[in-house]
């Protein structure tokens, strides 16, 4: 028989529906949490779609059509497929631009990293005025690129540049730094190295702060000299920071346009042209915009940067597994 409470019959199992009734509020809470997460993600997704996905899509579309200024306005560009890429690769400028890009990029990031690492290790040994000197090394990073490039262009001017004036004081004749095919590329490389040293200094100096001083003390007790402590302790422990520093430096240097354009405009002739400068010149630098080949060259740069990124991820994954 069912129990009776105050004359009312209590049926066994009557409390079961209460458990079922509590499920909808739980589902509602999960649903509200999901919507809140989507609301937080929405600005990021919108930013990526507007400033990354859509420009990339438009760049690919430009490279696959024949976009003249007229077609760009009217929107009736002829579809060419991969013809623009074929024209770019078979162009007489492509080989020179690719060689200059490789030379400009590799020499720049290697010198920037080496000098930045040397300065970071130097400033890691705290001494009087180290903070002031470290702040002074950030000046090239803080200046607008147009100011830095214009300053270097004036310093290396053949007629009245300060560099030639100093050389003449030592009996060395005039050198055409920016107007000679033999020296134009190396001149912009030197300027770009100077601009990139502060970035490497800041990142590598921050990495050095995370290395425990106990490791250096233990190495010194084992009889290691300064070079052995650097090679056996500092350099290996800086490897993760060094990898991301070199990757960011590579991506940044691949797309350098302003420094080269202000100093040499890719000349004389094509002596200092790179893929990035070539793309800019095709689109905006000739007075007769040719957007489609410019987009094709830009997409080749994107592929190179992506390849470098995948290599970095592969090496990082292999290091984590080992």
From TrEMBL:
GO terms for cellular component: plasma membrane. The chain crosses the membrane at residues 35-54, 102-123, 135-155, 184-208, 237-254, 294-315. InterPro entries: MetI-like, MetI-like_sf. It comes from the Bacteria. CDD domains: TM_PBP2. Residues 98-312 form the ABC transmembrane type-1 domain. It is found in: Cell membrane. Keywords: Cell membrane, Membrane, Transmembrane, Transmembrane helix, Transport. Coiled coil: none annotated. Its main location: membrane. It is a multi-pass membrane protein. One of its GO terms (biological process) is transmembrane transport. Belongs to the binding-protein-dependent transport system permease family. PANTHER family: BLR7065 PROTEIN (PTHR43005), SPERMIDINE_PUTRESCINE TRANSPORT SYSTEM PERMEASE PROTEIN (PTHR43005:SF1). This is Sugar ABC transporter permease.
């Amino acid at each position: 028989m069912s129990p009776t409470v105050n004359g009312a019959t209590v049926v066994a199992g009557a409390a079961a529906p209460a458990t079922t009734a509590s499920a909808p509020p739980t589902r509602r809470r999960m649903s509200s949490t999901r919507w809140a997460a989507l609301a937080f993600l929405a600005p990021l997704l919108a930013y990526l779609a507007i400033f990354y996905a859509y420009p990339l899509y438009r760049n690919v579309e430009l490279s696959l059509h024949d976009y003249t200024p007229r077609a760009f306005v009217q929107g009736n560009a002829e579809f060419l497929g991969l013809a623009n890429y074929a024209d770019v690769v078979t162009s007489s400028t492509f080989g020179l631009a690719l060689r200059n890009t490789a030379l400009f990029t590799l020499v720049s990031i290697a010198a920037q990293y080496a000098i930045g690492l040397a300065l970071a290790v130097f400033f890691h040994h705290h001494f009087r005025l180290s903070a002031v000197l470290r702040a002074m090394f950030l000046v090239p990073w803080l200046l607008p690129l147009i100011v830095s490039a214009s300053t270097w262009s004036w310093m290396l001017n053949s007629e009245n540049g300060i560099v030639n004036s100093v050389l003449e004081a030592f009996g060395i004749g005039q050198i055409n730094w920016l107007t000679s095919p033999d020296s134009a590329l190396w001149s912009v490389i030197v300027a770009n190295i100077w601009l990139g040293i502060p970035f490497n200094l800041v990142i590598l100096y921050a990495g050095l702060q995370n290395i425990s001083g106990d490791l250096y003390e233990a190495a010194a007790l084992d009889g290691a000299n300064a070079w052995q402590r650097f090679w056996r302790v500092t350099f290996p422990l800086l490897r993760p920071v060094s990898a991301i520093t070199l990757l960011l430096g590579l991506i940044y240097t691949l797309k350098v346009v302003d420094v080269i354009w202000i100093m040499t405009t890719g000349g004389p002739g094509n002596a200092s042209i790179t893929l990035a400068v070539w793309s800019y010149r095709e689109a905006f630098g000739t007075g007769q915009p040719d957007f489609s080949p410019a987009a094709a060259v830009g997409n080749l740069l994107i592929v190179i940067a992506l390849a470098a990124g995948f290599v970095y991820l592969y090496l990082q994954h292999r290091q984590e597994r080992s």
